[in-house]
Specification:
Order of helices and strands: EEEHEEEHHHEHEHEEHHEEEHEEEEEEE
Number of helices: 9
Strand content: 25-35%
Bound molecules: adenosine-5'-triphosphate, magnesium ion
Shape: elongated
């Protein structure tokens, strides 16, 4: 096992600068997840760590060793790709042991390593089967097995679960996390599924256009996103944004939306916000159903109601702003009806509309 240090790394393809000054510290044994929209540079960064792409500038270290010039096969890394094509004419055991055979390990040693990996992955009874005789999830585990037998210092995963159906993804992500708990191999995992990121990561790196927007543990990103991009990327359904400004009436500062609705805000944020245009952000789960006349409630006109069983997703218009609320209770309202929603001011964020940066409440710890 080893740490991975990515220091001021750049990647330039011809005239396109796709990775721009990225620095990420991946501690030994940790599970770091890279997320970001399509094309932001996640795979490119992984491929640079693996040695499949040259590093245009900056340094990548594995342990104490700078690996910029080290050949891929000497980096002691195992990578699992989205398209992990197994060899169809080889059994599970042969697929898993193939890289060891290429590296001329002894038959006994290969057999032992394959057996151990199969045990970890719950594949012991499938070693003599061919890939076509396996389910999608089992094939995915064979691909993992190929990586595990090599006993690498670092695992790199590039969207390894994206070919699986929703239920299997949930199961495999729990298994992967459990395997990481046992092997404790330093892992860098790419996904654009933010739920996967939230549930698996010790640390999440949110990227956009080749730049790291924020790096931190999942709940810090969720509770204190640095800007609107991170706030919008983490959390599902997404955070609601409402444009407006802070207005003071009778001594109390409130957020006044463009359509004239007054939303309560934490006075510690309002104090910092000043008179510039701001965007109010509130997550769907931070609305509660209220009755008319309670303080801090807002009238909302229902657009759709979606009961999921455990909770109810309500899309509604507050003034001219369309929001989504996730409510714990069942809601009988129909489209067009008026309900009252209470946003929790302690959970709301304010962002500077122009810079999109989150306004830190006075006194908030960094
Ligand atoms: N060989 C290449 N030559 C030129 N541009 C490339 C090359 N490989 C990737 N790019 C560009 O680099 C950017 C980052 O690509 P990359 O594959 O790293 O994105 P990604 O974050 O993995 O996206 P996705 O989620 O779709 O897999 C993209 O704009 C892509 O078009
Ligand atoms: Mg990719």
């Amino acid at each position: 096992m080893s740490s991975v240090e990515i220091e001021n790394v750049h990647k330039i393809f011809g005239t396109t600068h796709v990775i721009r000054d990225v620095s990420i510290d991946v501690p030994d044994g940790s599970f770091v997840v890279l997320v970001g929209p399509s094309g932001c540079g996640k795979s490119t960064l992984l491929r640079m760590i693996a040695g499949l792409e040259e590093i245009s500038a900056g340094e990548i270290k594995i342990g104490a060793r700078v690996i910029n010039e080290v050949q891929p096969k000497h980096r002691n890394i195992a990578m699992v790709f989205q398209n992990y094509a197994l060899y169809p004419h080889m059994t599970v055991a042969e697929n898993m042991g193939f890289s060891l055979r290429l590296a001329r390990h002894s038959k006994d040693e290969i057999a032992t390593k394959v057996r151990d990996a199969a045990q970890i992955l719950g594949l012991s009874n499938y070693l003599e089967r061919f890939p076509r005789e396996l389910s999608g999830g089992q094939r995915q585990r064979v691909a993992m097995g190929r990586a595990i037998v090599r006993d690498p210092e670092v695992f790199l995963f590039d969207e390894p679960l994206s070919n699986l159906d929703a239920k299997l993804r949930v199961q495999m992500r729990a298994e992967l996390k459990e395997i990481h708990g046992r092997l404790k191999t330093t892992t860098i995992y790419v996904t654009h599924d933010q739920i996967e990121a939230m549930t698996m990561a010790d640390k999440i790196v949110v990227m956009r256009d080749g730049v790291v927007e924020q790096l931190g543990d999942p709940l810090t990103l969720y509770d204190r996103p640095v800007n609107m991009f991170v706030a919008g990327f983490i959390g599902s359904p997404s955070i609601n944004f409402v444009g407006g400004r802070i207005a003071r009436t009778d001594g109390a500062a409130k957020f006044l939306s463009h359509s004239g609705v007054r939303w309560q805000v934490d006075p510690r944020v309002a104090e910092v916000a000043g008179g510039t245009p701001v965007t109010y952000g509130i997550r769907p789960e931070h609305f509660a159903l209220a009755t008319d006349g309670e303080s801090g409630t807002l009238p909302a006109v229902v657009v759709t109601v979606e009961p999921t069983g455990a909770e109810t997703h309500v899309v509604a218009d507050i003034g001219e702003d369309r929001i989504t609320a996730v409510l714990r209770e069942r809601v009988s309202a129909r489209p067009g009806e008026k309900i009252h929603l209470r946003p929790d001011p302690a959970q709301a964020h304010l962002f500077e509309s122009e810079s999109t940066l989150r306004i830190q409440p006075s006194g908030e710890a960094h």
